[in-house]
């Protein structure tokens, strides 16, 4: 029995596969490749580069970030909400990859001061790698372009996808005009000023925390979905006919 408990605690998909209320939440669904690219963009491609450099020079710090990377990718793939766990290490590993790549190629770019008379040894090395400076310049330019597009992508994603509050919703019509849906806030405001202060509000659990904070009313179920029986009773009451008694 103790082994089963430890297995369930280490398996992130156990609750999703065995507790229907958790499986019904969109944030608990597996992360798609589109979500990975939408949230991370350039980091998706630079992460393996940073991982490679960490494996090439193993140390205590590099082993730590490697383990952090592997476990974070696994858990982020299980639930889309765990992308928050993956984001820090993606930034760290991609930073390592970009920094090492730029350091490798930047030292191969020849300036006017470096274009001095070459020794026999340097001439032989240049013969083996004849367009070293040109290749380094191209690589540094490509990385700079990617970093610039990454900044624009992050700004766009932040403004369009992650800056709208969940209470006031926004959309665009066919003519391009912005449409604001303020129904939730108005409903909470109505409950706050048109119900007794000791009123108990029965709603689906999604709106529990918002009702508590904005309407300042006690609710029967909230987003703390620990009491599954309580939530199922509320759902049963909402779906039942008025003449059907709900067991306590």
Characterization of this structure:
It contains 12 helices and 4 strands. It has 248 residues and is mainly alpha-helical. The strands form 2 sheets. Strands 1-2 form a two-stranded antiparallel sheet. 11% of the residues are buried.
Shape: elongated
| Secondary-structure class | mainly alpha
Distance between the termini: 31 Å
Query: Helix and strand succession?
Result: HHHHHHHHHEEHEHEH
Strand count: 4
List the total number of helices. Answer: 12
Q: How would you sum up the major sheet?
A: 2 strands, antiparallel
Cα radius of gyration in angstroms: 28 Å
Mean pLDDT: 79
Low-confidence stretches: none
The share of residues in extended strands comes to under 5%
Describe the structure concisely for a colleague:
With 248 residues, this protein is mainly α. The chain has twelve helices and four strands. The protein has helices at 2-10, 14-18, 20-23, 33-40, 42-56, 60-78, 83-106, 120-128, 132-160, 183-194, 208-215, 228-239; strands at residues 169-172, 178-181, 200-201, 218-219.
List keywords for this structure.
248 residues, mainly alpha, two-stranded antiparallel sheet, 12 helices, elongated
Write the layout of secondary structure elements.
Blueprint: H1 2-10, H2 14-18, H3 20-23, H4 33-40, H5 42-56, H6 60-78, H7 83-106, H8 120-128, H9 132-160, E1 169-172, E2 178-181, H10 183-194, E3 200-201, H11 208-215, E4 218-219, H12 228-239
